[in-house]
Write a structure and sequence with these properties.
Helix content: 25-40%
Largest sheet: 7 strands, mixed
Order of helices and strands: HEHHHEHEEEHEHEEHE
Distance between the termini: 24 Å
Radius of gyration: 17 Å
Number of helices: 8
Length: 248
């Protein structure tokens, strides 16, 4: 996640999903932003025209209005999201940078140490949560970017996800699809990987949101949370979002 993306159309979908899930009284959500420094090489984050379209506002007027205020303030940041009343007061947020502020000239050992400390802190902060959302800038790890690379902060690694899973937490994971393969082929490959990494999961599902660009929200449910997560996804779709999400 980068601060400059706050309030774009992907954010709108993201928060709508999370708000649906935390509406169940038994769910305490932890949000791990995987915050990466803002980049400027592209125009990503400018997909905010939905804020001027009534058909989007009807989906969740309260969320729509809160995001519109943040975007219009010209100070878009995850800290603004944390203080905007978008989530219940019991929601836990970890907005520490996943990488050092600058990776230029930083030795491999220092990058790895920063990442290990970041993970340990995220785990400590979200101890009392039963569902954890991880929001990497790009998504799930890829073979071309090892953990010690400067761009590793744009990805979440499978063993990091397992650290939360193994203590009984269900997962929601953001993943941005690329243009090197079809959405169908990427989805099938990722789902195989989730089944391989989480063979004990009671639920492995995704919501695909195509506005602006294509991204997945993967939901991996522990047995004690699976029925709640499934019911909240269905409730979200019944509220009008089925026109915008594909579910699998």
């Amino acid at each position: 996640m980068q601060d400059r993306y706050v309030g774009d159309v992907g954010d709108f979908a993201k928060y709508a999903l999370l708000r649906s899930i935390v509406s169940h009284r038994s769910i305490r959500l932890g949000i791990i932003w995987c915050l990466f420094r803002d980049e400027s090489h592209n125009a990503d984050g400018r997909h905010t025209s939905y804020l001027r379209r009534p058909e989007f506002r009807r989906l969740d007027p309260d969320l729509h209005d809160r995001l519109a205020l943040i975007v219009s303030s010209d100070h878009r940041s995850v800290q603004k999201i944390c203080t905007a009343g978008i989530f219940p007061s019991g929601t836990i947020s970890c907005d520490l940078p996943v990488s050092a502020s600058s990776q230029v000239g930083v030795e491999r050992a220092a990058r790895e140490a920063h990442r290990a400390k970041w993970l340990a802190t995220a785990l400590a902060i979200t101890t009392k949560c039963n569902v954890v959302f991880l929001d990497p800038d790009n998504g799930l790890q890829v073979p071309s970017v090892p953990r010690h690379y400067p761009k590793a902060g744009k990805y979440i690694f499978w063993d990091e996800l397992r650290s939360f899973w193994e203590r009984g937490q269900s997962l929601i994971v953001y993943h941005h699809l690329n243009r090197r393969a079809s959405v169908r082929d990427q989805t099938k490959a990722i789902k195989r990987k989730f089944k391989e990494k989480f063979p004990d999961a009671s639920m492995i599902a995704y919501l695909l949101f195509r506005r602006g660009s294509c991204r997945h929200f993967w939901i991996v449910g522990q047995v004690q949370h699976a029925s709640i997560l499934q019911s909240k996804i269905e409730a979200l779709l019944d509220s009008g979002w089925s026109e915008y999400f594909e579910v699998g």
